Amino acid sequence: MGWIRTYRIKLAAFSAESFAKYWRYCQLYGVNTATRLALRRFRTPKGGLPTHETMLPLPPLHIAGGPTSRVEKRISIVIPTKNPGCNLEQLFKKLKSQEGMRDLEVIVVDSGSTDDTLAAAERWAAKVVQIAPEQFTHSFARNRGADEATGEYLLFMVQDALPLTNLWLWEMVTALETNSLAAVSCAEYPRADSDLFYQFLIHRHSNSAAPDQDRILAWDKSCSSYLGLRSNAQISDVAALIRRNVFENYRYKMAYAEDLDLGIRLIRDGHRLGFLHRTRVLHSHNRSSYYFLKRGYVDVRFLVEVFPNFVFPEVEDQARLYCDILTNCNRVNQIARRLPDLRFPLPVEDLMKVLLTMFSTPKAETTSGWESLNPDLSEFVGQLSERWQHMSMRADGHKNMIAPHVVDHFELLQNWVCGIYDVADKALASAIVSALEKMLALHSGTHLAYLYLTSRSHGRLGEGLIALDKTMTAGV
């Protein structure tokens, strides 16, 4: 009976693991906040992976002599640009070399490039749409490009993604047509010069559901939770192919995470999506820790806006949160300073344990500058420090609310790094410390968003938090 199953699911929430997590949150956020969070989660269906995920029944993707059949429909490729450098020229070459395509149309939507972008577009016979830099949003630029498109299919790409093979686009179109999908996108393969943390993020994203499997995604009961909905609505504008007639009915709407928002609206209306893991593009970024501070903040703001049942811990003590951020930044700053004192080469497992110990049990917690941090993050931390000079950098009896999340994240990185490397040199050690700094920035950003949302829900937004919100959401 349905009510018995529901009752059993509710009882399963009262596991030893759940109680341990509740006790941990009591230490991090206080008893009242932890209890409210637990009750809200108890009333909210637990998220999970899509229950229907299956392998896409693709035909053979490659045979001697080329694809099995030519795609007769026109593909309009929309690429927003802003000073892409040589990346755009490389992308044009890759697109023009795609096999099995009858007709490709390339539309560049440029928002004020000062490099060779417009000349390169002219050389490759691409259609150019120019918009003012202040007009740019991820949705506006893509919608503007789609308005100029004449193809039956629209392919939205970014300026620095490169197809890995000459059959990449044929595989994308074949997956969409063979499975009657509304849209299909693909996974990324990191560039050789990408930083360690981005490589780790791609690994986590690719293995979060069914690793190395091409999947069909649609609405199911797991979409009652934000985790299930986010997993099922997976579209990536790094490379997203969509039927033109479908896109015209939906279009992009959000300034941030516009691809996920589009995916949610599509599956809600019964459309099916495809996500290809074996067909990939070469794409990655070397982002600063300050970027991840803002990214963590904007992610939470987006989740609350799009997922009504998104549950987050209330953070009411602004001074304590700022103190925790400063404390952890000081810990990472100390680690970076002490890194040259270690003797290399060093077994990577030993290095990870040493770094984790240094972060968890620092020698001191007094500040003396932030010169070892990313400059933009250092400036942000310095401003926090000046604003809250009266606060002690020592713990006030409460457990640091950010540090445990950073430690959990670092342990995942530790498992991944130890599975790849045996011995660490100074370069690898520096990359790991940089990843630790970015993790700290990411979790600091999420908690700053919790603070803002908590204050807003209680009608206590001051000028400082309003200014913080503008800073964190600008340009991401």
Structural class: alpha/beta
Order of helices and strands: HHHEHEHEHEEHEHEHEHHEHHEHHHEHH
From the 3D structure, determine the CATH topology of the largest domain: Spore Coat Polysaccharide Biosynthesis Protein SpsA, Chain A
How many discrete domains?
3
Helix fraction by DSSP (H/I, runs of at least 4): 40-55%
Please compute the radius of gyration using only Cα atoms: 24 Å
Task: Give the helix tally.
Answer: 18
Oligomeric nature of the chains? single chain
Overall mean confidence score, pLDDT? 85
Topology:
Layout: H1 2-12, H2 16-29, H3 31-43, E1 71-81, H4 86-96, E2 101-110, H5 117-123, E3 127-130, H6 138-147, E4 153-157, E5 162-163, H7 168-178, E6 183-189, H8 196-206, E7 215-217, H9 226-232, E8 239-243, H10 244-250, H11 258-268, E9 273-282, H12 289-306, H13 318-338, E10 346-347, H14 348-360, H15 375-387, H16 403-418, E11 423-424, H17 426-457, H18 463-473
Parallel strand pairs: 1-2, 1-4, 2-3, 6-9
Antiparallel strand pairs: 4-8, 5-9, 6-8, 7-9, 10-11
Helix pairs in contact: 2-3, 12-17, 13-14, 13-17, 14-16, 16-17
General description of the model:
With 476 residues, the chain is α/β, with parallel strands linked by helices. It has three domains: 2-43; 71-286, Spore Coat Polysaccharide Biosynthesis Protein SpsA, Chain A (Alpha-Beta Complex); 292-300 and 307-473, no CATH class. The radius of gyration is 24 Å and the shape is globular. 50% of the residues lie in helices and 13% in strands. Helix 2 (16-29) crosses helix 3 and helix 12 packs parallel to helix 17. The chain is built from 18 helices and eleven strands.
